[in-house]
Amino acid sequence: MQKFRGFFKLTEKLRQYTKDMNPVLLGATILLMAIGLLGIYSAESDPGKVFFSKQSVWYGIGFILMIVVANINYNLVIAAANHFFVLFIFLLLLVLVVGHTSLGAQRWLKIGGHGFQPSEFMKLVVAATVVRFLVIKGKEAFSFKNLMLVLVIVLVPFFLILKQPDLGSALMLIPMTLAILFLGNIPVKKLSVILIIGILILPVAYYTLHDYQKQRLHTFVNPHLDPLGSGYNVIQSQIAVGSGEVLGKGWGKGTQSQLNFIPIKHTDFIFAVLAEEFGLWGGLIIIGIYLFLIMEALKIIKLCRFTGGKMLGGALVTMIFAQFFVNVGMNMGIMPVAGITLPLLSYGGTSVIVTMTALGMLQNIYREYIKAEK
Predict the structure, then answer these.
(1) From CA 248, how far away is CA 260, in angstroms rounded?
(2) Best CA proximity match to 125, nearest among 93, 158, 172, 78
(3) Which pLDDT tens digit goes with each residue over 280-317?
């Protein structure tokens, strides 16, 4: 009995740390991690299964981090946001100077042999910094001067990330900021003006894109314009999704994935691998789990009594939903290829850690609501 005492103490501590966490959010997180492991194991052709082993470790670290963050009051995160902002601006500058280059992009810092992508974390940092700024400004938050300052907070990291280049991560800052403004109760007229200006800028922004980014937009409209070049990824992904039919070809038996027709299949195109092997039903179950997660997160935002929590939660849900929507869309050929990972399913330590941190913050917003109710 004595030898089990330590185990019981550990179990009790874990119960205390996970007390009052949202069960739907937690369940969806665990299910997506399990599906992610199935997909990466199948997608990896290396018999040593290095990616699978590394992703298992990242899931473990990410899950512990989620529990830790769920126990930190989100107001402390918002209060410290400006310090994180300065730190990550420095790291983004460092990436441009000494960053590791892969597939034509200089996005990573190498730490102990592992790649670290500051732009992924910057999404969380910008959200918390904008929320902090608006909360401090109070009733004057949406004056012209303060909205211009919000623009500066967003555009400085936006252009640093764009310079890497990482258009997908840079663009992600825009809907997250709009969600913050909306949940912060910006007057409808001012929000409408911002949206109209954004739409008017779009044609001009097109001419600032790199040639390969313009080519991605062209192949989005018609992938067969360049079937062996920029359209190859989308065409192979569409074939994989379609060939899975209703029931799929079976785990580890997808011809498109196992014969390496699908490019970067363990990261950006992991959904195509799963849809080919588990079919339409498998794809619908994955989409359903994401929708459950997102709907529950929206419910948490609605329950939150503090505007700061609502704004922060809104930005986090927008990030997860936008990545899910764009990634699944590009796997099915209904969205342009944007180099955006599928939260919790795609391989990648930084992506897993950032998503888990966001889920931990959402869990804390929920726990603070439960605490206030008692």
Answers:
(1) 17
(2) 78
(3) 999 999 999 999 999 999 999 999 999 999 999 999 99
- Biggest alpha carbon–alpha carbon distance for the chain: 72
Least confident of 211-215, 236-240, 279-283: 211-215
**Average pLDDT of span 39-50:** 88
Record the tokens describing residue 77, joined without a space.
């995160």
Q: Which residues contact 207 (CB under 8 A, 6 or more apart)?
A: none
Q: Which residues pair with 109 in a beta bridge?
A: 116
Cβ-count burial of 77 within 10 angstroms (0-12 exposed, 13-18 middle, 19+ buried)? buried
Identify whether the C-beta of residue 262 lies closer than 8 Å to the C-beta of residue 272: yes
Pick left, alpha or beta for residue 354 (phi over 0 → left; psi -120 to 50 → alpha; otherwise beta): alpha
Give 172 or 17, the one with higher predicted confidence: 172
pLDDT score for 264: 78
Lookup: tokens for 68: 């830790």
Q: Print burial letters for 99-131: b (CB count within 10 Å at least 16), e (below 16).
A: beeeeeebbbbeeeeeebbbbbbbbbbbbbbbb
Query: Could you tell me whether strands 100-102 and 114-116 are parallel, antiparallel, or unpaired per DSSP bridges?
Result: unpaired
Q: Fill in the DSSP letter of residue 139.
A: G
Burial of 163 (0-12, 13-18, 19+ CB in 10 A): middle
pTM of the model: 0.91
252 φ/ψ sector (left φ>0, alpha ψ -120 to 50, else beta): left
Whether residue 14 contacts residue 21, with contact meaning beta carbons closer than 8 Å, is answered with: no
DSSP assignment of 195-233? HHHHHHHHHHHHTTS-HHHHHHHHHHH-GGGSTTTTTHH
- Tokens of residue 307, six digits: 């505007």
